[in-house]
Each structure stands twice: as C-alpha cells, then as structure tokens.
C-alpha cells in the first residue's frame, strides 16, 4: 500500500478489507455523494464489486443512499472519535491550543498530513464558546 512503509506477508493481507476501506476513502469533502460508477472509477474495482461493497456498507450503517447516490453517515465518526480519545498528540496539543486561543482570541488547529490531505486532529476554542462547542471531526 502506498501509505505504508511496512511490509506485510501476502497471507496476512485481506484484500476485501482493503477494498472496503478504499471505498470509504473515496468519499470526501469534494466528493460527498457518489454513484456506483464513480466509486468503481475512484477505487479501481469493478462496478459489480463496487455495488456489493456499497450495499454491504449501507447495510452496516456506514452509508446511506437514495438508490442512485451513496453518502457517508455519522457512523464513520466512530473511528475518528476512538482515535481522538486515544491518540497522544491531540491530548497534549489541546491545552497549548486553548492557551494560544485565550491569549490571541484566534482559533488554532493541529493538523496532520495524510498523503496529500490535511486532517485536523485538535482545535482551540474560546472560553465563551464552550457552550457552543461542536466537534469539527
């Protein structure tokens, strides 16, 4: 896989899982609703396989559909909330971000680069925003 420097033995690699995750990653801020053909093109799998993956992910609650287009549901946020509650960097950075925000009245974020995408992992809030806080993740 291009994102990993780690080697994996072929008999340890589950291609179906990799394809399912690639399918979820095909959705993004610039491509929120996709049809079967678009998913097949973005992931390099056949239309038949893409349809089966989409229907499975819909059944599992990760996608919703209007029978023509598919889109992500809130269920995918379970992965991000698990990461954010367990990862060290967001926890350590949060107090510094809040301090900077309190001193400057500006909003600050910590982001990581994932391939060519910037992913926010922590964000500051002004104290008066506490009752309005909604996670941007």
Describe the protein.
It comes from Acinetobacter baumannii. InterPro entries: GAF-like_dom_sf, HTH_MetabolicPath_Reg, Tscrpt_reg_IclR_C, Tscrpt_reg_IclR_N, WH-like_DNA-bd_sf, WH_DNA-bd_sf. Keywords: DNA-binding, Transcription, Transcription regulation. This is HTH domain-containing protein. This protein has 137 residues and is of the alpha+beta class. It contains five helices and four strands. The protein has helices at residues 15-25, 36-43, 47-59, 77-86, 88-104, and strands spanning 63-65, 70-72, 109-114, 117-123. The strands form two sheets. Strands 1-2 form a two-stranded antiparallel sheet. Strands 3-4 form a two-stranded antiparallel sheet.
Task: Break the fold down into its secondary structure elements and pairings.
Elements: H1 15-25, H2 36-43, H3 47-59, E1 63-65, E2 70-72, H4 77-86, H5 88-104, E3 109-114, E4 117-123
Antiparallel strand pairs: 1-2, 3-4
Helix pairs in contact: 2-3
